[in-house]
Amino acid sequence: MNMFNTFGITDTTFRDAHQSLLATRLEMKDMEPIAAQMDQVGFASMEVWGGATFDATTRYLAEDPWERLRQFKKLITKTPLSMLLRGQSLVGYKAYADDVVDAFVERSATNGIDIFRVFDALNDEWNLARAAAAVKNNDKHLQMTICYSVTENGKMGGPIYSLDYYLDRAAIFQDMGADSLCIKDMAGLLSPYDAFDLISALKKVVTVPLQLHTHYTSGMASMTVLKAIEAGIDVVDACLAPLALRTSQPAVEPLVVTLQGTENDPKLDLDTLIDLGDYLESILPKYREYLETPKASVIDAKVLSHQIPGGMASNLVSQLREADSIDRLDEVLEDIPLTRKELGYPPLVTPMSQMVGSQAVSNVLFGRYKMVSNQVKEYLTGMYGRPPSKVDSQIKEAVFKFYDTSEIKTINERPGNLIEPELKEAEKAVADITSDVDDILIYALYPTTGMKFLRVKHGLDLQKDTLDLNADGDPSENHEITATGTQEVPVKSLKTRSFNVFIDDTFYKVEIDPVDQNMISISDGIRNPEPSRDSNPTLHGSSANSDGELKSPMPGVILKYLVEVDQQVNQGDPIAVLEAMKMENTLPSPKDGRIQSLTVEPGQTVVKGDLLAIIT
Ligand code: CO
After folding, report:
1. How far is the CA of 361 from the centre of ligand 1 (A)?
2. What kind of architecture, by CATH, is found in domain 497-615?
3. Res 579: pLDDT
């Protein structure tokens, strides 16, 4: 494949652009009409799949992601198609078994992907190895990807994310058989002059082509892209103007004009691009509800000062609001850099951004590391791979002191080695519905929502009865994220829209069915609160819990109980698993005793303070 012979532009309109701005909701029927024309533009490649598309199509759109890919391949015959792949986590949020990785890459290649952009949130080659090998086995283009992060002050440098760090990662990734390398700046943190230094240095030692993927979030991306081009970058990512800027990519049109007549002229036709943009403008109004437009500014200047990705910050706001603690946002924003440092400076990209963010919320609400999600515990054992820097040993001790250590062992090998094969079991689980390998993979990746999708696809259920179609796009999706919630939501009409409404300082959530214009529900008004600090629940032997009542410390979904009625338990034994802030949290018994009753159904949504169990 020769797509990297001259300077080129990768178009992200059909994947990252609408993932970033519209919660990945663009439907295939709205992209199809211009796919063939996009193919004629002359892009180096087109990113059309992967990231959150697989999850969003099955969870929200009732659209077969494999069919989408095949359709793109049919319509786009010249331009190589690329996808984003999260290493061992593929297009999901957890590590999958090697047999699932192999099968998924093979099917993606067969269905139409030419370029696999493979990354890991921790830049750990252990998590990339299997997927990378699978891409090579299928004779496809392997683009190994380095997530860009900063240590502390927004600049490249410091003890972790120095130029040497990136040179080291690049050398290792290139040796794994990369056909090209990509710097992936998911939060728009790469500043123009750092980009120049980084790309210049990489070009001296890297022999394969180099690509830059960045986001406009902080407002620097257009300048950063230009400096990267001056430093000799081979390919940059951009997208059509209607889906550009904000948390998406830089717009392609001004870039084309900027480069006209230079040695890096991509020679793309401006009028064609403008026509294509006009088409997008014609279909985008119906997606407007997903566009976050609370502010006049299209950039998030605060990212420049606190380095917290824009989407992650808005996620924290909604989490704190649900927990009735929005007044503590500043404390959480202060806790995040500390928590990140203690956890070994992970880049704030999926799933680390959710883990660090929800841990900071817990730290502020319940005391530092008093409540720790199962995901963070697994991270501390090494199941997510190796952090860029050492985890604070005191934190590790604190976490393991509070929780059952018998289930926690520290591993020091490729985490994928420890996962039993999963494909056969997935095949059995859907045997009554389908034997198609693509279907089996949908289930293997997303057992809960995937099964719902397959039942709809094969006519066993009606779409509206099963699919989770609330309009709450996860704003943090602009970093290759989506909501990971396995939680069930109440059945709503397909088109239900929900609005957050403030009247004076009282907040209401209003749901409206636009088809018959009826208001479906309106939540109780929540006054913008000044909650008393001492009313916050604590988890371990607190006075609130010592009477033997286990109450929910925050809103969420009870996934399951780990005990049965009449069972004897000791204080601290795990009683229930609460999913909150997309993390699973094991809730411990407040005292020694016998389980008298378990008071909610697994799958049930609870609010802060709901009774979960009585121990006598
Ligand atoms: Co991106």
Report:
1. 25
2. Beta Barrel (2.40)
3. 86
What's the CA gap between 335 and 326, in Å, rounded? 15
164: Cβ contacts below 8 Å, ≥ 6 apart: none
CA of 477 to the centre of ligand 1 (A): 9
CA of 348 to the centre of ligand 1 (A): 13
List the beta bridge partners of residue 509: 500
Ligand 1 centre from 350 Cα, in Å? 11
CA of 236 to the centre of ligand 1 (A): 12
Parse the chain into domains and list their residue ranges.
8-291, 303-401, 423-479, 497-615
Distance from residue 248's CA to the centre of ligand 1 (Å) = 7
What is the CA(71)–ligand 1 centre distance, in A?
A: 23
Give 606's contacts (C-beta < 8 A, 6+ positions apart): 552, 555, 556, 557, 558, 578, 600, 612
Q: SS in 3 state form for 471-522?
A: CCCCHHHHHCCCCCCCCCCCCCCCCCEEEEEEECCEEEEEEEECCCCEEEEE
Centre of ligand 1 to C-alpha 16, Å, is 6
For the chain, how long is the longest CA-to-CA vector? 80
Separation CA 498–CA 469 (nearest Å): 11
Q: Which of 473, 525, 463 is nearest to 498 (CA)?
A: 473
What token pair was written down for 454? 């397959």
- CATH code: domain 303-401 is 1.10.472.90
Q: What is the rounded CA–CA span in Å between residue 35 and residue 343? A: 43
CATH of 8-291, one of 3.10.129.10, 3.30.1330.10, 3.40.50.720, 3.20.20.70: 3.20.20.70
Q: Can you give the pLDDT at residue 404?
A: 56
Low-confidence ranges of the chain (pLDDT < 50): 1-2, 465-509, 512-545
Query: Over the stretch 199-215, which tens digit does the pLDDT of each residue have?
Result: 999 999 999 999 999 99
How many angstroms separate the CA atoms of 239 and 55, rounded? Answer: 22
How far, in Å, is the centroid of ligand 1 from the Cα of 207? Answer: 24
Q: Give me ligand 1 centre to Cα 213, in Å.
A: 7
CA of 214 to the centre of ligand 1 (A): 6
Which pLDDT does position 405 carry in this prediction? 57
What is the rounded (10 degree) CA torsion for 559, 564, 565, 566?
-150
Task: Confirm if 150 and 346 have CB atoms less than 8 A apart.
Answer: no
Burial class (CB in 10 A: 0-12, 13-18, 19+), 533: exposed
